[in-house]
Amino acid sequence: MIALRRILTVVGVIAVAIGLLWMAQGAGLFPYPSSSFMINQTPWILWGGLLAVFGLALTWGSGRLIR
Predict the structure, then answer these.
(1) Which of 30, 37, 46, 55 can bridge 12 by disulfide, Cβ–Cβ 3.0-4.6 Å?
(2) How many Cα atoms within 13 Å fall on the side-chain side of residue 8?
(3) Beta carbons within 8 Å of 12's beta carbon, 6+ residues apart
(4) Is 63's pLDDT higher than 90?
(5) Does the pTM exceed 0.85?
């Protein structure tokens, strides 16, 4: 059970990081690589926010559900 908790926590943290990256690229705050189709595209702000919230819920839930 401890291994599953760690895996879920790592996946949740990665999801939060990717979500924040998508939000930054969608807002034009992180224009790298310059040829990315995500730069200044507002739908990626929403998708990134949803992924970040999912990652937070997964990280929080991994500690609460598996005890």
Answers:
(1) 55
(2) 17
(3) 55, 56, 57, 58, 59, 60, 62
(4) no
(5) yes
Tell me the C-alpha to C-alpha distance, in Å, between residue 66 and each of 31, 44, 52. Answer: 39, 32, 21
Smallest Cα–Cα separation from 54: which of 7, 29, 18? 18
**Structure-block tokens of residue 47:** 């998708």
Query: Which residue type, as a one-letter code, is found at position 15?
Result: A
Quick: pLDDT tens for 20-53. 999 999 998 888 888 889 899 999 999 999 999 9
Residue that is written with structure tokens 């998508």 in the block:
22
